[in-house]
TrEMBL record:
Pathway terms, separated by semicolons: Lipid metabolism
Low complexity compositional bias, start-end: 1-11
Keyword Transferase assigned: yes
Protein name: Acetyl-CoA acetyltransferase 2
Family label: Belongs to the thiolase-like superfamily. Thiolase family.
Active site: C138 (acyl-thioester intermediate), H399 (proton acceptor), C429 (proton acceptor)
Keywords: Acyltransferase, Transferase
Organism encoding this protein: Gulo gulo (Wolverine)
Domain Thiolase C-terminal stretches: 320-442
Molecular-function GO terms, alphabetical: acyltransferase activity, transferring groups other than amino-acyl groups
Amino acid sequence: PAPAETEAGQPAAPPPGAACEPPSKALPHSPTAPGGQQLEKWSCGRMSASSDPVVIVAAARTAIGSFNGALAAVPVRDLGSAVIKEVLKRAAVAPEEVSEVIFGHVLAAGCGQNPVRQASMDAGIPYSVPAWSCQMVCGSGLKAVCLAAQSIGIGDSSIVVAGGMESMSKAPHLIHLRAGVKMGEMPLVDSILCDGLTDAFHNYHMGMTAENVAKKWQVSREDQDKYAVLSQNRTESAQKAGYFDKEIIPIFVSSRKGLTEVKTDEFPRHGSNIEGVSKLKPYFLTDGTGTVTPANASGINDGAAAVVLMKKSEAANRGLTPLAQIVSWSQVGVEPSIMGTGPIPAIKQAVAKAGWSLEDVDVFEINEAFAALSVAITKELGLNPEKVNIQGGAIALGHPLGASGCRILVTLLHTMERKGGHRGVAALCIGGGMGIAMCVQRG
């Protein structure tokens, strides 16, 4: 993501350079090695062989707020509790019937002990129900759903609420004073940069990994800008058509003027065009070779998303029609310097585990961390662009780190319901060099 906004209304990237401590040891592989050859380990889950698969019976999200925007004053526990309450309502599940709550959450500094537990109990779920967070950076929200499916699949749980939440606007600046400061200045460290947007192995911003991918996969500045404008235009059309309305729940924000209802994604730039986008200068490489700009990157945002999972038989007993069943998932490792290519092997593995071909998939939701990555993934996999992020993606909607994995799943489920799609794939790249993907099926 590129985390602030310029006067032109586009998100502005943070200053490049060291944001955290330098890496303590060298990587086992060269950062220049081809992305397709850097798969180190992968693990997959497959649910389709089960006669009683895990299904998703409810899915909802908040609107996505801009950095220091409409949701900036809302604590992350409140964002989380709001979506938990809503999906339980939609699934007609009583809070005491929940077995477990699992949420992705990345920027937890200063949020208090176990923010997911806070959100769970604020939503009325009893203290007897465990609630916890998982941290897989951008993939956290989708990984939480994988963990929920595993828990149900092996019989540990019967009903799980899974999702993700993030308030990047409330992420604090940090300073280490345990040993005291005897002389001189002590700099503040931005926890967004340090814990969310800086590669821990090369000590540079995620934007540099996008530049690496652009170079290796020969993605031009023009390609990236065209993709960014397409994302913005698709989101604008979807908003005007009301396609997001069913998946978004309202959040009421207190102010001196009273309560304000937030129910529309705040980050999209309506009227985006190639002329305006092409005027922005590359941010991360300023030597004349750069291609990544604030306009063709995702943003820093606030939001939450959640789903309710149970066995298909449990849904039938309750008279619920599932939105989809979880067929398979995959998580992979790639070289950190080209982390944005993680979805390439992840999607291949998940689709293979499902017993599908890529051509069998009706809709793909692939997180748009940077346009360079989206173009490279689509090109490498040979995907039909008309099936990928058909309502726009994170370049337009925004990228609240811990929430995005579940957000794209929620959008995928509602898109498939609206269009009548049968098979869908949700996938994300992950900082540090990973990818995650999930296959879902309707009917």
